[in-house]
C-alpha cells in the first residue's frame, strides 16, 4: 500500500498555553540558554587555552561541553522562539531533523559520560598504567566511537518514523519533535515500531545508567586503598560526575523506558535533560574541580593583566 502523507507541518502545544506565563518563560529560558552557551563555551575555551588541562579527562570534558551546547540548541532555541509565537509550527522535514538532532546529541552525550567514567576508573584504579591505557590515539578513537554510536542510535530512531503515513491530526503535545510524540500521530499501526523504539532507547538509557552506577561503585570501593589526599581529590571529581549522571539519566529513564505511551508530563520532565543538565554541567565541573577553577583564574587574570598593560601604553 502506498504511503499517504498529507501532513506538511506539525504544531507544538508547547509547555504552557497561557500567554502571560509564556512571556515570563521566554525571559527565564533565554537566560538559561545564555548560561548554557556561555558556561560550556568558557569551559571549552579554558581547556583549549590552559596548558595544565591537556589530559584525557579534560579532552572528554571539552567534548561534553560542545555536545551540551549542540543538544540544548536543537531543542531550546526553537522553544524560546515559539514562546512568543501564536502558532508554534515546524515543517515535516524540520521535525525529522530536530528528532535526529535530539537523539544524535543526546545519545552522544550518554556515550561520552560512559567514556568519562572509564577514564576515572583507569585513573583511580590503574594509575601506573593510565598514560599507557589512555594514550591520545586511543582517546581520539574512543571519542570518534561515541559520535558514531550516537549517529547510529539516532538514525535508527528517525528511520523508523520518517516513512510512516501522517494524515492528521498534526498537533504534538511537546515543545520539540521527539520520536514517541510524533509516532503517536501516525495513521498506521505503530505497535511494532513503538516496541523497537522503546527497546533501542531503553537499552541505551537504562543500560548506560546501570553501567555507570556499577562503574562508580567499583571506583568508590577502590578508594579505600588511596591516601587521604588522593581519596579527597578522587571523591571531588567523581561526585561531580555522579551528580551529572543522576540529573541526566533520571528523566531519560522515566521517559524512554516505558512502553509506547506518552504522558503530558513528559515535556516538563524533558526540561531537565534538555535545559537543566546542560546548564548545570559547567557549574558542577568548575565549582567541584580545583584544576579547572585555577586554570580559569590564571587564564582570565593573565588576559586581564595583558589588556591593562596594552592600554597603559596607549
Automatic annotation (TrEMBL):
The chain crosses the membrane at residues 26-47, 59-80, 100-121, 142-166, 204-223, 235-256, 268-287. Keywords: G-protein coupled receptor, Membrane, Olfaction, Receptor, Sensory transduction, Transducer, Transmembrane, Transmembrane helix. PROSITE patterns: G_PROTEIN_RECEP_F1_2. Residues 39-285 form the G-protein coupled receptors family 1 profile domain. It comes from the Eukaryota. It is found in: Membrane. This is Olfactory receptor 4S2. It comes from Sciurus carolinensis. The lineage of its organism: Eukaryota, Metazoa, Chordata, Craniata, Vertebrata.
Amino acid at each position: 500500500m502506498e504511503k499517504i502523507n498529507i501532513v506538511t507541518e506539525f504544531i507544538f502545544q508547547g509547555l504552557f498555553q497561557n500567554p502571560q506565563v509564556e512571556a515570563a518563560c521566554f525571559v527565564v529560558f533565554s537566560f538559561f540558554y545564555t548560561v548554557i552557551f556561555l558556561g560550556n563555551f568558557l569551559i571549552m575555551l579554558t581547556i583549549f587555552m590552559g596548558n595544565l588541562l591537556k589530559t584525557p579527562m579534560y579532552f572528554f570534558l571539552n567534548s561534553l561541553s560542545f555536545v551540551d551546547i549542540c543538544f540544548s540548541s536543537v531543542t531550546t532555541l526553537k522553544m524560546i522562539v515559539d514562546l512568543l509565537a501564536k502558532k508554534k509550527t515546524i515543517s515535516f522535514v524540520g521535525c525529522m531533523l530536530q528528532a535526529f538532532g535530539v537523539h544524535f546529541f543526546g545519545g552522544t552525550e550518554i556515550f561520552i559520560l560512559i567514556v568519562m567514567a572509564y577514564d576515572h576508573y583507569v585513573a583511580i584504579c590503574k594509575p601506573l598504567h593510565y598514560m599507557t591505557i589512555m594514550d591520545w590515539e586511543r582517546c581520539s578513537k574512543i571519542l570518534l566511537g561515541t559520535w558514531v554510536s550516537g549517529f547510529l542510535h539516532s538514525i535508527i530512531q528517525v528511520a523508523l518514523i520518517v516513512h510512516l503515513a501522517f494524515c492528521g491530526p498534526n498537533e504534538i503535545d511537546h515543545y520539540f519533535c521527539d520520536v514517541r510524540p510524533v509516532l503517536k500521530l501516525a495513521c498506521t499501526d505503530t505497535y511494532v515500531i513503538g516496541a523497537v523504539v522503546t527497546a533501542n532507547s531503553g537499552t541505551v538509557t537504562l543500560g548506560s545508567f546501570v553501567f555507570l552506577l556499577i562503574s562508580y561503585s567499583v571506583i568508590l570501593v577502590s578508594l579505600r586503598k588511596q591516601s587521604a589526599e588522593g581519596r579527597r581529590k578522587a571523591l571531588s571529581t567523581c561526585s561531580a560526575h555522579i551528580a551529572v549522571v543522576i540529573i541526566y539519566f533520571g528523566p531519560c529513564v522515566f521517559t524512554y523506558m516505558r512502553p509506547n505511551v506518552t504522558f503530558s508530563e513528559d515535556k516538563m520532565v524533558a526540561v531537565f535533560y534538555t535545559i537543566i543538565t546542560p546548564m548545570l554541567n559547567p557549574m558542577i565541573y568548575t565549582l567541584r574541580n580545583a584544576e579547572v577553577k585555577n586554570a580559569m583564574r590564571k587564564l582570565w587574570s593573565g588576559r586581564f593583566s595583558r589588556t591593562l598593560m596594552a592600554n597603559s601604553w596607549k
